[in-house]
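Box 3.1. Reading complex inputs
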Amino acid sequence: GENVEQHPSTLSVQEGDSAVIKCTYSDSASNYFPWYKQELGKRPQLIIDIRSNVGEKKDQRIAVTLNKTAKHFSLHITETQPEDSAVYFCAARRGGSYIPTFGRGTSLIVHP
Amino acid sequence: DVKVTQSSRYLVKRTGEKVFLECVQDMDHENMFWYRQDPGLGLRLIYFSYDVKMKEKGDIPEGYSVSREKKERFSLILESASTNQTSMYLCAISGEVEAFFGQGTRLTVV
C-alpha cells in the first residue's frame, strides 16, 4: 500500500519567515495530494491540494509543489503569522480510490 | 455546509467495556472512515466503508469492529476496551476531492 513520509515533525519559525514542509510517497499510482491543517482542538481541514498533472499551485500565502519523478511534494507558507500555528498533514491518494494515506504531521509554531 | 458529527467529544470508559463511537454525515457520501490520531503517529486508518453493510479493514483494525446499517451512520466498536486504545478518534467522509472530518472523540480508557 501507499506510504507517506512527512518532515519535519516540528517546525518553529519567527513571524514573517517562510515555512516548508516536505512529504514523499511510495505509490506511483497516486495522483491526488491534499494538505490539511488542524488547529488545536479542532478537526483537520483542507487548505490546498494538487493533482498529478500540475507541478505547482498557489493560494495567497500558501503553495504546493509536486515532483512526480521524485515522488515528493511540499507545502510552502510565506510571511507566516501566529494563526498559521497548527499541525499540518500531507496525504496521497491513488487514482480510483477514495482513501487518503496521511503523513505523520508537522507541528508548525510561529513565534510573534 | 458539510456536517460530519460524532456523538461525543469526550468519553471515559473502563477496561473491558464495550464502547460505541457514532458518526453521522449529512452529505450522502458512500465512503466513510474511522481514523485514530496519536501524537507523532498522525492519522491511522482503522476501518472504512464504501456502502451500507460493507466494510474494509484499514491499517490498524485489531481490537475494533464497525457497523454501517444506514448510509449516513458509521459506528466504531471497541469490543473490549483496553488502555492502549486511549486516543483521539476521527470519523471522516470522502468524495471526489477532499475529506471532511468530524470534530473527534477523545477516548480515555482507565
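In summary: Chain A has a mean pLDDT of 94.
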